[in-house]
Amino acid sequence: MSAISHSRGHAIYFDGKAWRYLDNNNLLQNEERPCFRCGKYPTPEGYDACLEYVKGMKSACCGHGITKELQKKDLIK
Q1: Which residue, 49, 46, 45, 43, is CA-closest to 9?
Q2: Cα–Cα distance measured from residue 27 to residue 31, given in angstroms and rounded to the nearest whole number
Q3: By three-state DSSP, how is residue 13 classified?
Q4: Distance CA 66, CA 76 (A)
């Protein structure tokens, strides 16, 4: 079973040895992609362009356009 995640909003998977883009199987380390949502590449310092520097934060994520619909369970019977 492969692990699945996202990199700047692009779907990626772990093939057992390396992370790859789901849409073309290219290695994540060999293909730099911009943010799926804003279309910008990281800043020279490596921050996500959507957020840039956030004081006091080690890491943060804007979601890069990834949305998941929340599913509500019908509690009323």
Answers
A1: 49
A2: 7
A3: strand
A4: 30
d(CA 76, CA 17): 47
Q: What 8-state DSSP symbol labels residue 27?
A: B
φ/ψ (deg, to 5) at 30: -100, -10
CA 72, 73, 75, 77 torsion: positive or negative? positive
Residue 29: DSSP 8-state: G
* Residue pointed to by tokens 């890069």: 64
Q: Can you tell me the distance from the alpha carbon of 8 to that of 61, in angstroms, rounded to the nearest whole number?
A: 9
Residue-wise pLDDT tens digits, 1-58: 478 888 888 999 999 999 999 999 999 999 889 988 888 888 888 888 877 777 887 6
Give 9's contacts (C-beta < 8 A, 6+ positions apart). 35, 36, 37, 63, 64, 65, 66
* DSSP secondary structure letter of residue 32: -
Model confidence, pTM: 0.70
